[in-house]
């Protein structure tokens, strides 16, 4: 019930997200909200629409926090501890791929964690970088590449963001990548506070002596 379908206010585009508090704060990808604008429409599995606004953005980390309006008792899910994950664990990816669910009932795909601490080079609009992500083989396709990745306890362990393409075609190839929940936790207080956050870099290069 906490999975959200995210759309532009005029109805164009589409993506997914997940509610993390009864007050209406939800996580999604920055590449979804950057196309939707500052105000959005969000659909829940109960079939109801809610207005939503941007709360805070992490452009380079590809995360946005949005705030749904109209209730103070939204269904929500808990952010789990992604540092406890192990390769081979079962996972569930949820969202609205290809806008298949016109009633906003999310699609569920099942798979395992196939890798941890993967690096994905900057790509796409805004040069989105995934420095420490979860690799998963649950089917992730356009439309739910912004929804939650759950462990089998129903905890959010990541936000699905990218997939590896086969011959430049936007279909699932068995390799998806989720931004880890613990990375999101590091910036969550700032995102809920209305900030634009960035990731620090060391500014150094590494070489070897000949």
Written overview of the protein:
With 210 residues, the protein is mostly beta strands. Helices cover 9% and strands 40% of the residues. It contains two helices and twelve strands; from the N terminus they run βββαβββββββββα. The strands form two sheets. Strands 1-2-3-6-5-4 form a six-stranded antiparallel β-barrel. The protein has a six-stranded antiparallel beta barrel with strand order 7-8-9-12-11-10. The longest helix has 12 residues, at 181-192. It is globular. The model has no long low-confidence stretch (mean pLDDT 86).
Strand content: 35-45%
Report strand order across the widest sheet.
1-2-3-6-5-4
Proportion in helices: under 10%
Structural class: mainly beta
Q: Tally the helices: what do you get?
A: 2
Radius of gyration, whole Å: 16 Å
Summarize the helix and strand pattern as letters.
EEEHEEEEEEEEEH
Kindly summarize this structure in a few lines.
This protein is mainly beta.
What distinguishing features does this structure have?
6-stranded antiparallel beta barrel, mainly beta, single chain, 6-stranded antiparallel barrel, 12 strands, 2 helices, 210 residues
Topology at a glance:
Layout lengths: L2 E6 L6 E5 L5 E4 L1 H7 L2 E5 L5 E10 L4 E6 L21 E6 L11 E17 L4 E9 L11 E3 L5 E8 L12 E5 H12 L18
Antiparallel strand pairs: 1-2, 1-4, 2-3, 3-6, 4-5, 5-6, 7-8, 7-10, 8-9, 9-12, 10-11, 11-12
